[in-house]
Every structure is written in C-alpha cells, then in structure tokens.
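Hello,

Our lab assistant flagged a job as stuck in the queue for most of the afternoon. It eventually completed. Since we weren't sure the result was trustworthy after the delay, we are filing this so someone can double-check. Below is the sequence as submitted and the structure that was eventually returned. Let us know if re-running is recommended.
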Amino acid sequence: MSRIPTHTLDSAPAASRPVLDALAQRSPSGQPLNLHAQMAHAPAVLLGYMGLRRTLDEHGHLERRTRTAILLTVAAADACAYSLAVNTLVAQQSGWEAKDLAALRNADAADAKLAALLRLARQSAVHHGHVDEATWQSARAAGWTEAEIAEAFALIGLAQYVDAFVNLAQTPLDPVLAPFAAEAPLLNGTTDSRLTHLLIVEDQDRTRAFYEQVLGANVVRPRDPVILQFHNSWIVANAGGPPTDDKPEVTMAPPSQPNVASYALNVRVSDARATYDDWRSRGAHFLTPPIDHGSEIRCYLRDPDGHLIEVGQSVTPHPTA
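-- returned structure --
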C-alpha cells in the first residue's frame, strides 16, 4: 500500500508542477508516472532527482544505450520491481532488443567492453559503492576512462536514489508499465534463482486487492498471473486448472479444506501486535489475537481463498539473575 500521496498536475505543490508537467509529456501514458507523482509531494526530492538526471543528459559522455544498460543492471541488482519495469521500457526505447534485456539485467552484454562496465556497476550497487581492484582494472582494460567510470557511478547513484524512494514510498506500478514488469524476471543480478510462492486462487482480482490493500504488497503484474512483491519475497497468484503436459496428474485448485493446512505463508515482523492492529484496520480477519508463546508471539489469518498466513515475532529471552 502506497505511503506517499500520488499527485496529479493539479494537486501537486506549485514548485513541483513545471517539472511534473514536463515529465508527463514524456510519459508513455501522457500522465506522470506514479514515481514522479509521489516525488512531487516533496518538491526537493523531485527537483533533486531531475537535476542529476538533466545534468547527466546534458553533460554526460556515455551514449544513451550504455546509460540505459547501467540503469537496468542496477535495478536488477537492487531487485526493485518498479525500476525493473521502468528501465526495461527505457532500454527498449533506447534501441535494445528484447533478446538483449536478460543479459543486461544480469550485468552482461554481447559487447565485451560494455559487459566489463556492467559488472562494475552491479558490484558497486550490491556492495554500496565498493568495487574490487580486479573489477576496476577489468573495466579500465576494456577501454573505459576514469571519467567514464565516474559518470557510470553517477548513474548508479541515480538508479539507487530511485530504487530507495520506490521501496520507501511503496510506489504502485503504473498500468502502462505492467507489460514490462511481466517481461522482467523476478531475479536480481547476483543469483539465477529465487523462491517464489505460488498461490492457486478462485479470483485473481480479489486476491490482488487483498494482498495489496490489506497486507501492503506491491503489484508487479495485475493478472494472468498476478505477481506481487511482498517484503523481501514474491507471490504469484493464478487460477487453477486441470493437468497439463508438464504436470500430467496434478490438478491445481485453491484449498478445499481451509481448516486442514499443509502450507502457510510465514511473515516475520518486529511487532506482531502492531501488525495485527494495522492489518485488522484494513479488513484482515485473524483466527485469534497475537498469543505470547515465550520465545515467539504469533497469530494467523487467511486470505480470501483460505490460504493460511502466520504472523510471527521472535522474542529474545531476558537473562535471569
């Protein structure tokens, strides 16, 4: 659930409106992207973002395809679903073909010189600006100057400025970006796999609304299937169906006996009681209030299809005298 107001051109603070209007004219929908509409709530945030972006556009020496490749690599390294969608679109607009995008997200490219720079960008993003000597020297040997690498670091900073803001604001995905979110894999740039929870549901729209509006998940793809970013993990919600050639004896269906569970989502929180109060205020129905079991405080609720969700808080025992 979004934490910061998403403004229109009419509702935005006066200082933000000229910049927001200019961004809207460049938007694929003709309206400000949610990212920019939320930044507009604090004019300094939007103007600071645009100041760096404009400076890199006007005074930078890296070509546009190189810049967009860096932004996409960093978005993948940060595992930021919103930025992955935006930068997938931007990369395509700059001339990258669909077949190139997976490599760019994984800090790779057919061009060896670009690949060396992308590996440096990913390492910087993952390690808070630290890059080992071997990676630095590899980029230099590939032909990148110190000034070009410094410019790449500014692009990395711009990308991480956006990623941090999106994560803080819980920026909702714009409908116009949904196709590009669907193309972006649910992976970051440092691994080739990630555990994702698959839920079989009766009504995708109902499930999406519950996880977004009640539990605060971010929608990456609205349906067929629903893809949600939920804290540091992912949920895919899809309709059931009969056996298929890759699961020939398996029928997919929502839980038929909600009171018999062989699986549950386990959400670890710092304050189970506060989470209980917050989610209840948004419409969640818990089986019981949080119960203190000594080393853990926990409670349970169900989603609209009966999937069980545990909310747990670990408790550090107090030393005895």
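-- support follow-up --
The delay was a queue issue, not a problem with the job. The result is valid. Confidence is low (pLDDT under 50) at residues 186-191. The chain has two domains: 17-183, 196-314.
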